[in-house]
Specification:
Elements lengths: L1 H21 L18 E3 L7 E8 L2 E3 L2 E4 L4 E8 L5 E6 L1 H13 L10 E4 L4 E8 L3 E6 L11 E6 L1
Parallel strand pairs: 2-5, 4-10
Antiparallel strand pairs: 1-8, 2-3, 5-8, 6-7, 6-9, 9-10
Bound molecules: copper (II) ion.
């Protein structure tokens, strides 16, 4: 029994680094900032906001459907859900959107806990502050199951 416990401990110690990699982008127990660093930027501080962008989440689309921001900007996204359905607002490139969409499809109803997105319940407004550090083609997507595939996605260009 003791050796079983010891091997379990060994396995969990081995698994720890890969778990940390798999959850890159999440805040760890100490709230370490580097865990929130994405290739295109990181959560921004309210004192650093250079622009507020209002976005409407509808059943089932975003308005506007496209946005352009500049490298170095810290944007406060103010997302208002004017629909009857709950929505989500997540920024990331097409690959990241696809990955998150798979996660959400596997766990419907899971609350958004990634630093690059917010849940926006019907009738509510949620905000996300983000500092963009690289140029690139990003998207903002909703991953309530079925919504992204139905076209609830906007194009976000960082120039
Ligand atoms: Cu949605």
């Amino acid at each position: 029994m003791q050796s079983f416990l010891r091997s379990m401990l060994f396995v969990s110690v081995l698994a720890a680094p890969s778990m940390a990699l798999a959850h890159q982008g999440h805040t760890d127990a100490t709230g370490a900032a580097q865990a929130e660093e994405f290739w295109f930027g990181h959560p921004g501080k309210s004192a650093a906001i250079t622009r507020t962008v209002k976005i409407e989440a509808r059943d089932i689309s975003f308005a506007p459907a496209a946005l352009t921001v500049k490298v170095g900007e810290t944007v406060r996204f103010e997302v208002t859900n004017t629909g009857r359905l709950d929505h989500e607002f997540m920024i990331g490139d097409a690959n990241e959107q696809g990955e998150h969409d798979k996660e959400m499809a596997a766990m419907p109803g899971m609350a958004m806990d990634d630093p690059n997105g917010v849940s926006v319940p019907a009738g509510k407004t949620a905000t996300l502050i983000w500092t963009f550090t690289k140029t690139g083609a990003l998207q903002y997507g909703c991953h309530v199951p079925g919504h992204y595939a139905a076209g609830m996605v906007g194009q976000l260009t960082v120039q």
